[in-house]
């Protein structure tokens, strides 16, 4: 066990998986250099046959990944920015996610597509979006959003071992965050959420960078006598419904937080699920805290996404 950054934890998972399974390889734009440090050093250890730079063609990257996965390898494709996944969407939605269904279960597509998302570098509206909601309506596609270095390493190992396609979304703001992470390989199930903080007054379900902001909000709320429980689903699909429902049944109140715009976002699905399956336990209305209905601006990008105080105010409102 040692302190590692989010990026280093992912890098370790990469290397461990490639050492243990020769069918694992990776390719993407500038991947030999190691964008954000995630693939740094892999080319030196594994060589150009397993760590390949590619031209700037995200559609080709996705298509190559699908084809390689169907033929029995376990490719990890890196799309430099999650916003550009729209160019890859045809292969991911129409091919990767449907292979198991089209083949009556005889074929599978063990593909991992990694993509950095979210604000943090002032890169403007085409390179700063959170895109999980774009893919939530796709049966057969798993979606992972790690919020900590520990989760990132364990979830990437599980994603690589999955026999179905996984969209692995990494928040750019989190790459430099640190915590203790095991030095040996380990897995975290792709269907298991985590309680990041216990509480009895209100449940806050948050993903990716919003988990840490929710934890900051919980500290402020605790000073006011409100104990918030922070639930991190870790994987949006498959979703750990049980951990969310059990928390809501305990607290009777729910706030859902995500960086992407509120309308049509992940929070709406959580709110609907709780309303359908735990409405008798609710003591107040459900509140969603999401991004504003605007493109992420180049300057003052924080103005487009939820702040700690927004989460505090939402919890205060339903705990009165």
- CATH C-level class of the largest domain is Alpha Beta
Q: What kind of assembly state do the chains in view correspond to?
A: single chain
Number of helices: 11
Taking Cα atoms only, what radius of gyration do you get, to the nearest Å? 19 Å
Q: What is the SS-derived class? A: alpha/beta
Query: Can you identify the CATH superfamily of the largest domain?
Result: Thiamin diphosphate (ThDP)-binding fold, Pyr/PP domains
Annotated CATH topology of the largest domain: Rossmann fold
The helix-strand sequence is: EHEHEHEHHEHEHEEEEHEEHEHEH
Low-confidence stretches: none
Can you list the strand order of the major beta sheet?
3-2-4-5-7-6-12
Helix fraction by DSSP (H/I, runs of at least 4): 25-40%
Structure description:
This is Pyruvate dehydrogenase E1 component beta subunit. It comes from Tepidanaerobacter syntrophicus. One of its GO terms (molecular function) is oxidoreductase activity. This protein has 320 residues and is α/β, with parallel strands linked by helices. The protein has eleven helices and 14 strands. It has a seven-stranded mixed sheet with strand order 3-2-4-5-7-6-12, with helices on both faces. It is globular and about 60 Å long.
Summary of the model, kept short:
The protein is α/β, with parallel strands linked by helices and 320 residues long. The protein contains eleven helices and 14 strands.
Blueprint (SSEs and pairs):
Blueprint: E1 2-5, H1 6-20, E2 24-28, H2 42-46, E3 51-53, H3 58-70, E4 74-78, H4 85-95, H5 99-102, E5 112-117, H6 132-135, E6 142-144, H7 149-161, E7 166-171, E8 178-181, E9 194-197, E10 202-206, H8 209-223, E11 228-232, E12 235-237, H9 241-251, E13 254-261, H10 266-278, E14 287-291, H11 308-319
């Amino acid at each position: 066990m040692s302190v590692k950054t989010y990026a280093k934890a992912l890098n370790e998972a990469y290397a461990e998986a490639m050492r243990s399974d020769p069918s694992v390889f990776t390719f993407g734009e500038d991947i030999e250099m190691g964008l954000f440090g995630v693939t740094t050093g892999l080319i030196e250890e594994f060589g150009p046959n397993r760590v390949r730079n590619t031209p700037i063609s995200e559609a080709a990257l996705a298509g190559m990944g699908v084809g390689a996965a169907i033929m029995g390898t376990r490719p990890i494709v890196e799309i430099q920015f999650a916003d550009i996944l729209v160019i890859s969407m045809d292969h991911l939605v129409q091919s990767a996610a449907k292979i198991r269904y089209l083949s009556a279960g005889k074929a599978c597509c063990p593909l991992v597509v990694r993509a950095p998302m979210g604000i943090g570098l002032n890169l403007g509206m085409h390179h700063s979006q959170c895109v999980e909601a774009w893919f939530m309506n796709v049966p057969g596609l798993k979606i992972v959003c790690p919020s900590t270095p520990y989760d990132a390493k364990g979830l990437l190992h599980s994603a690589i071992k999955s026999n179905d396609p996984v969209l692995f979304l990494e928040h750019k703001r989190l790459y430099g965050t640190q915590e203790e992470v095991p030095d040996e390989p380990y897995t975290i199930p792709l269907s298991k959420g985590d309680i990041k903080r216990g509480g009895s007054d209100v449940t806050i379900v948050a993903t990716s960078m919003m988990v840490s902001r929710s934890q900051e909000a919980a500290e402020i709320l605790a000073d006011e006598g409100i104990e918030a429980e922070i639930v991190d689903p870790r994987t949006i699909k498959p979703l750990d419904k049980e951990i969310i429902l059990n928390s809501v049944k305990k607290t009777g109140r729910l706030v859902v937080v995500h960086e992407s715009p509120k309308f049509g976002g992940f929070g709406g699905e959580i709110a609907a699920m709780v309303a359908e399956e735990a409405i008798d336990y609710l003591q107040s209305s459900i509140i969603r805290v999401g991004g504003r209905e605007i493109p992420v601006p180049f300057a003052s990008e924080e103005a487009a996404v939820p702040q700690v105080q927004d989460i505090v105010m939402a919890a205060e409102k339903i705990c009165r």
